[in-house]
Design brief:
mainly alpha, disordered N terminus
Length: 127
């Protein structure tokens, strides 16, 4: 099976595609999570609208950011690394509560976290 092309996410499906079943939405979200690339704004919007079925205000409260932040994420070509990490962590937490395959979720979380590097704090200049 050839590797998918991630122009705007794992598939070319549009945010408003009503033909997706809940299983297909879950598969789409898992494909976004498994992608080694930083998520696109369209992926953040897809996850919020189709997976969580939340408006921007409720989603922002759920993940602890402002609604303006969510709006900016969804308008971005690519999310910043910390935004990507926060969104993936929130989705993984939700999947872990819902799924009957926790090993799969744990493996997915481990693969995501292995690619995340915390920046070292900047040194204060000597005076």
């Amino acid at each position: 099976m050839p590797s998918p092309v991630y122009e705007y996410g794992p598939s070319s499906r549009h945010l408003g595609d009503t033909q997706l079943s809940s299983g297909e939405v879950r598969d789409e979200v898992r494909a976004y999570l498994a992608s080694p690339e930083l998520l696109h704004g369209s992926a953040a919007a897809f996850i919020r609208v189709r997976f969580f079925r939340m408006n921007q205000e409720d989603f922002a409260k759920a993940i602890g950011v402002s609604r303006t932040s969510v709006t900016r994420w969804e308008a971005a070509h690519r999310l910043l690394p910390m935004q990507d990490y926060l969104l993936r962590a929130y989705v993984l937490g939700s999947l872990a509560k819902d799924t009957k395959a926790p090993k799969e979720i744990c493996d997915l979380a481990a693969s995501i976290l292995s690619g995340f590097r915390v920046a070292k704090p900047a040194r204060k200049p000597n005076r």
